[in-house]
Structures are given as structure tokens and as C-alpha cells.
Fold:
Amino acid sequence: MRRILRHRPSSAMVIACLALSIALGGTASAAVLITGKQVKDGSIAGRDVKNASLGKNKLSATALSSLTGERGPAGPQSPKGDPGQQGPQGPKGDTGLNVAGTRRVPNQDDFSCNGDVVVGTLPVSVPSSSRIWTYAHGAILNENSGATEAGLWLRLRDAGNTETLAVSVASWDGELEALTVSTLDTGGLMLEGSNSAASATYTAAPGSYLLQLVVKSQSGTCGQTYKPSFGSNQGSAMGFMLVGP
Structure:
């Protein structure tokens, strides 16, 4: 009859068996981990998620909008900044044409009959081509001169006073009596040439000119005994204005 031998397992054997059991159990646990596909939508609550573990790209638009707080109050105004640097100087502009001049014309006693008599002169400087608008007024006193007609007009002469370049429309008074006072005025755009009957508007080239006020008493027995006079109470005047080409 066989005898059954009884042996106790050694300590080393016990530890080896225990280690093997733990290793086999861990592998089995890893095999049953839950994946994302197995999680039902809406089943995980906020308390189940670790703080700061999700980025914005993992959140829905609705969730992102709920994270926006109310607009805060406006901050204090910042101090005024330093002024900027001065910009470059712009190009020089064209010379303007609002050039004008005027002059009071003094009285003149006993002027000659039957000829053009200059009673006032005004220099004109034209910076660029321009038409010239003019005006003048004055009175001719017949003074028993025997004249039957009295006239007044303006003329534009070259700077050397050698040639008439343009004139205004003449103003005339006729059928004069012995003591008639003819109040006359003239003006408008200067006309080409020396004839006041001209109709073409004169355009002055850049340069210097003389604007002259001319009077004339004529016909009848003018000047045989007495001569006419120009002006009354120093109230005569003449002027001009450049109005462009």
C-alpha cells in the first residue's frame, strides 16, 4: 500500500502563485474598459468631468455661448495723446484774380472844349489774363460854356500811356442849356479798341496798365467865352475789378 506523502508548499511557491493571480486579474480588467462609443449622449454629468480637462473645440456652440458673461462697465477715458507731427507744406496756389482798385476823382475847373480830357487815372496790375470790369461817375457843369453835348467814359492805356487798348461804353447828355449839370456814369466790361461803339470784350494780358476817366464837352459855341467844369462837391469816383478770362 502506497503511502501518500504530505508536503507543505514553500513560501516562495505561495508568493509566485499570488503574483500570477494578480497579473491575470489585471489583464481581464483592462479588457472590459468602457470606450467613447459606448457612452450614451447626455449620460455624463458635469461632476463626472475633471476641471480644465476639456478645450473649447470639444464644446458645442450653445455651451460656448453660455460661457459669455454680461458686458462690463466702460473703463475710464485714457489720457489725451501727444499731437502728431506737422505734415509737409502743400504746393503754392495760383494767384487769385480778385484784384480791384478804386479812387475818388477831384474836381477840375475850366477844362478845354471839343477834346478828350483826362480827369482821373488809376493804375491796373494784371497778374494773369483777365477781363476788366469798370465803373465811374461824375458831373459836368456847362457853366455858360456854350456846349450842347457832354460825355464821360473810361479807357485803358498801356503802361507808357501811348496807346488806347480798350474803352467802356460812353455816357452822353445833349441839348444842354447854359447852366445844365450833366450827371453821368459809365462802366461794365472793357471793350476792345478805342471806339466806344465796339462790342468785343477785351481780355488783358499779364502786365501793367493805366485806367483813365475821360470827359468831353463839345458842339455849339463851347469855350468861346467860358469853359465847362468837372465834378461837384468832390463826389466823382472811378474803379475796376479783374474778373478772370
Q: What stands out?
A: Confidence is low (pLDDT under 50) at residues 1-6, 27-31. Residues 100-211+220-232 form a domain with the Jelly Rolls fold (CATH 2.60.120). The two ends are 152 Å apart (CA to CA).
